[in-house]
Amino acid sequence: MRHGKKVNHLGRKTAHRKSMLANMACSLIEHKRINTTVAKAKALKQFVEPMITKSKEDTTHNRRIVMARLRQKEAVAELFREVATKVGDRPGGYTRIIKLGNRLGDNADMAMIELVDFNEIYNAGKTTKKKSTRRSRRGGDAKTAAPVATKATKEEE
Q: Where do Basic residues bias regions lie (predicted)?
């Protein structure tokens, strides 16, 4: 039984796996898309998305956390400078995995993993509209309170 075993070990020891994922994440940040196997792409998605979330808020603490995982100064700088500004309003889902078929040599399932906001082909037809985030139903919002007040004043007249 595999209760509570969420990490795909990818057939590697811990140090090798961590350094491989760090190198793949740096390549993804630098090139915006990379080709790899499906299993590595899924593991990389779990590895890189929390760091992109951290990069949305540029603090020294977040930079140090990301630097400890990536270990490449240029990749961290590009993540906080370019990638964070592009994904600033997105609430999650920064990467996309597209399956490519099987590799010729060993028939491994191949995939392309890319940063969603950097693909001009998919984003060409779409207008850039700011998505609203999900809010709780408690607490009053200024947008909903204003129309109610105007209706009340019109009824009084």
A: 127-137
Q: Describe the crossing of helices 38-55 and 14-31 by its angle, rounded to 10 degrees.
A: 70
CB-based contact 51:82 (threshold 8 Å)? no
| Tally of structural domains, the chain | 1
116 in any annotated domain: yes
DSSP E strands: which ranges in the chain?
A: 33-37, 95-102, 109-115
Residue 79: Cβ within 10 Å count: 25
**Positions of the chain with pLDDT lower than 70, given as ranges:** 126-133, 139-157
Domain residue limits at 25: 14-127
The answer to whether 91 and 131 are in contact (CB under 8 A) is yes
pTM of the model: 0.79
What is the distance between the alpha carbons of residues 93 and 128, in angstroms, rounded to a whole number?
17
Q: Which CATH number do you get for residue 24?
A: 3.90.1030.10
